[in-house]
Design brief:
Organism: Pedobacter steynii
Radius of gyration: 26 Å
Structural class: alpha/beta
CATH class of the largest domain: Alpha Beta
GO molecular function, one term: DNA binding
Order of helices and strands: HHHHEEEHEHEHEEHHEHEEHEHEHEE
Oligomer: single chain
Helix content: 25-40%
Keywords: DNA-binding, Transcription, Transcription regulation
Number of domains: 3
Largest sheet: 6 strands, parallel
Number of strands: 14
CATH topology of the largest domain: Rossmann fold
Protein name: Regulatory protein, gntR family
Low-confidence stretches: none
Strand content: 15-25%
CATH superfamily of the largest domain: Response regulator
């Protein structure tokens, strides 16, 4: 019964002179959804079945189905066919956003990205937490269900074939670079040289203290390029530098500069500074990576080096909306405040 009603809706558009066959099929399915002939979860007829029922070319039918998938109205299930994903026929695009985690700076990216996209685009947000199994499962689950994919990848060789499954015109890599083919679009951070430049700019200030302590976790989401830059800097500038895997609660001491990438670690350092009566920028130095509004305010300001995550979000949304290829590298910039 549903098939008969669907075919009736499609054929009712045959006399609309402005519609191509592809547009006729797309609009016919939309009309069937608006009239509740089709509802969420319903299977669409196979391409071969539609060829027999309405006589359109297989390429025309497949093109119409794929357009409705890109808009998030249909979804494609491997070896099962096409299904109704939503009854909201007003949305123009369905976007998958896969990030590391919802830290404050990534929230800045997300809000900027979401606001720039506008209201008629469905945005689904996922996190992989730098866990490759989660990353792989998420990629396999979202494949074929979205019109555009914006992915912050795990920088491992195993990630490349996973991400390479997506059509290049529907894929944007953000945050960390991944060595795909030359055609892929990306908006990513540059860590090595810009981190080194930040340290050099702070060299005179760092040398006023006895030790430069960097908290860095091996085999984590933290960029190895920042570690390389730190090692290069303390050697080039003869700085007493130390790398520790994590901050130990209560271990704060005067006359040291503490540098951390993790916000939770930063909050622990600041809390211990307050408890021991040590003033950042005077009794000790504090440096953080990835800026946000809180770091501008707390303790009279925390010195950071960072990219503009709001700008990255806007640029990513522009790619989704316009589909113009982009290959852009954002350099971290030093933001000097009172903590160092």
């Amino acid at each position: 019964m549903k098939l008969y009603q669907l075919i009736t809706e499609i054929k009712a558009l045959e006399d609309v002179s402005t519609f191509s066959k592809h547009e006729q099929l797309v609009q016919g399915i939309i009309n069937a959804l608006d009239q509740k002939i089709l509802v969420r979860g319903d299977a669409l007829p196979s391409v071969n079945r539609m060829i027999r029922e309405i006589g359109f070319a297989g390429e025309t039918i497949a093109k119409a189905y794929k357009e409705l998938v890109s808009r998030g109205i249909l979804e494609s299930k491997h070896r099962k066919g096409y299904f109704v994903a939503t009854e909201d026929t007003e949305q123009h695009l369905r976007v998958c956003l896969l990030l590391y985690a919802f830290d404050t700076f990534q929230e800045t990216f997300y809000q900027s990205f979401r606001n720039k996209l506008g209201e008629n685009i469905q945005l689904d947000l996922f996190f992989h937490h730098n866990n490759f199994s989660v990353f792989e499962n998420t990629i396999n689950n979202v494949k074929g269900k979205y019109g555009m994919y914006v992915i912050a990848p795990i920088d491992l060789p195993e990630s490349i074939p996973l991400v390479a499954q997506f059509p290049m015109n529907k894929l944007l890599i953000v945050d960390r670079q991944l060595n795909l083919n030359e055609e892929h679009s990306y908006i990513v951070q540059e860590f090595k040289q810009s981190s080194y430049n930040a340290f050099v700019e702070l060299a005179d200030r760092i040398k006023e203290f006895d030790e430069f302590v960097f908290f860095f976790k091996q085999k984590s989401a933290e960029p190895n390029d920042i570690m390389d830059s730190f090692q290069r800097f303390i050697k080039d500038y003869n700085v007493n530098g130390t790398v520790k895997s994590k901050y130990e609660l209560g271990s704060i001491a005067p006359n040291k500069v503490y540098f951390t990438i993790h916000n939770l670690e930063l909050w622990e350092i600041l809390k211990d500074s307050k408890i021991k009566g040590l003033k950042p920028g005077k009794d000790l130095g504090i440096l953080s990576h990835n800026d946000d509004n809180i770091k501008e305010i707390i303790f009279d300001g925390i010195t950071t080096f960072s990219i503009d995550f709001a700008q990255m979000g806007e640029m990513a949304a522009e790619f989704v909306l316009c589909r113009k290829p982009i290959q852009h590298i954002m350099k971290n910039q030093l933001i000097r405040r009172n903590s160092l």
